[in-house]
Structures are given as C-alpha cells and as structure tokens.
TrEMBL record:
Coiled-coil ranges (or none): none
Residues annotated as transmembrane: 86-108, 114-134, 259-281
Domain Type II secretion system protein GspF, residue spans: 150-275
UniProt protein name: Type II secretion system F family protein
Matching Gene3D superfamilies: Type II secretion system (T2SS), domain F
Classification lineage: Bacteria, Pseudomonadati, Pseudomonadota, Gammaproteobacteria, Alteromonadales
PANTHER family noted in UniProt: INTEGRAL MEMBRANE PROTEIN-RELATED, PILUS ASSEMBLE PROTEIN
Entry's localization field: Cell membrane
Length: 287
C-alpha cells in the first residue's frame, strides 16, 4: 500500500512538473536587445514576472495600462519593463509580503488575520511607493542639471551653431544623468525629421517638469515670433539658476523646523537624563 501511494505521488509530481514546463513555454521569448539592463533583484524574479504578465495582462483594462505606461515613462523605467510586467511585480510583492507574514506567524505561534491583510496591502502598494520615489528623484536630477545644460546651449547658439549642434555639444560636455538621456532623444527625433518644437514637446511630456515646460514654451514662442534664440536661452538659464538658489535657500530655512521632532524625541530626553543622573544620585546619597 505504501509503495502504491509513493508511485502515485511520483506520477502526480511528474505531471505537475510537465504542466508547469508547458505553461512556462507558452510565454513568448522576450527580446531585450533595445531595453535597459535589469537590476540584480529583478533578474531573480523576472521569469515569474514574465509568466504573470503574460497570463494576467488579458484581464487588465487599456486605461490602466496607459496610466501605468505614463508613470513608467516619467520615472525612466519605460525601457526596463512594460505596464503588464509592472503589474506582475505588484502581484509578486503582495505574495511575498503575505508569505513573509505567514512565516513570521508560524515562528510566533500565529498572527492575527488583520496583520496578513495589512501585509498584503503593503506589498501591493510598495511598488507604487517605489515608483513615485524614482519619479521624484529623476525629476529632481533634471531640475538640478537644467541650468548647466542651458549654459552650454546658450554658449553654443551664440557661437553660431544651430539647435542640433548646440544640443550635441551640450550632451557631449554636460553632466551624466536623465537630462542628458532626454536631450539625446530630442537629437534623435530631430535627426529623424521631427520638428524642433515637437521634439521638445515630447521631451516635456516625458519628464513632466515645470521648468522644462517653461523652456519648451519659450523656445516655441521664440520660433514663432522670430526672436533671438540665444537671448531666450540666456533668460531661461538665468531664471533657472535663480530658482535653484531659491530652492536651496528654502531647504536651508526648513532645516530647523525638520530638526524639532528628532530634538524633542531623541536628543532632549537623553540630555535631561544625563544632567539629572548625578543630581539624583547626590540626592539619594544625602538621604
């Protein structure tokens, strides 16, 4: 009887393995020749991401996929993953959080169901939080590097180069970062035959930064009215530099306010304890 059960279990396990292999083989091969490389963490879970993205994508609405694609583009992840793969990462994050909570519950002799639900919600929204952080970080790097690139563009335009040549000089000499990548895309669009105004509008749509929108509007207005492009860029460069100084000044003024909480919660109690200890010991010895 035991041998029969063992044989049946082995057959069932074999059929399970064969079914899993067939399910995975139905997933089309992904061509990442023109995609950005994956991080080490994504490489570990990427087979599962592809599997879930293939089988779950049919149930996702077009509006949701468009919104996610937009967010991935603004965050600079559109050349790493698709909207379907991002949703698959959210599912894997949810399952991992729930599994981790159940594992902790097994070691602690059980956890309340509310904790499992909270872990599932946290795992589901953790990729959203990470995506928003990446977006803010990328937009901050773009705003920080914009005055430098505007200086290069201004000097190149005033030296007699056209916009394509000025962008090439700025990309070649400017600091590395997301703004350089965006200007490279602008150069590629202009060389492909797209108009200068439309190329810059596409960049503004990709980054969604107020300063870049202002630059694009100023360039489009200068092109329509025939104004000096060099003078327009110089005004934009001076304005962006003043705004950068004001942002730095604002952060410096906000520092004392942000320090109030750690001072009250962590530093002041310890200081009072250190000062009160010798007084308390002296009082006890005098008794």
């Amino acid at each position: 009887m035991l041998n029969l059960i063992t044989i049946c279990f082995a057959i069932a396990l074999m059929f399970l393995i064969v079914s899993c292999v067939r399910i995975y083989r139905r997933v089309p091969v992904e061509n990442r020749e023109f995609m950005d490389p994956l991080s080490p963490g994504l490489k570990l879970i990427w087979p599962w991401v592809r599997l879930l993205a293939f089988y779950v994508s049919e149930n996702l609405s077009v509006d949701y996929l468009e919104r996610v694609s937009r967010k991935l583009q603004v965050s600079g992840l559109s050349y790493i993953m698709s909207a379907e793969q991002y949703f698959a990462i959210r599912i894997i994050s949810t399952l991992f959080s729930v599994g981790l909570m159940l594992l902790c519950g097994a070691m602690l002799d059980g956890v309340p169901t509310n904790y499992v639900v909270i872990a599932a919600i946290f795992g589901y929204y953790l990729p959203v939080i990470s995506l928003n952080d990446l977006r803010k970080k990328r937009q901050g790097l773009i705003v920080k590097a914009l005055p430098v690139y505007l200086d290069y563009l201004t000097m190149s335009i005033e030296a007699g180069l056209n916009m394509t040549g000025a962008l090439s000089q700025a990309v070649e000499r400017g600091p590395a970062g997301p703004l350089r990548i965006e200007f490279e895309k602008v150069i590629r669009d202009m060389r492909a035959g797209m108009s200068r105004a439309q190329s810059f509008r596409n960049m503004a749509d990709r980054v969604q930064v107020t300063e870049v929108n202002s630059l694009v509007s100023a360039l489009a207005q200068a092109e329509k009215t025939g104004a000096s492009l060099g003078q327009t860029l110089r005004i934009q460069s001076d304005q962006r530099r003043v705004e950068r100084f004001l942002r730095a000044e604002k952060k410096a003024l906000e520092a004392p306010v942000k320090l109030i909480f750690p001072l009250i919660v962590f530093i002041f109690p310890v200081t009072f304890m250190i000062l009160a200890f010798p007084i308390a010991m002296k009082f006890l010895y005098e008794l």
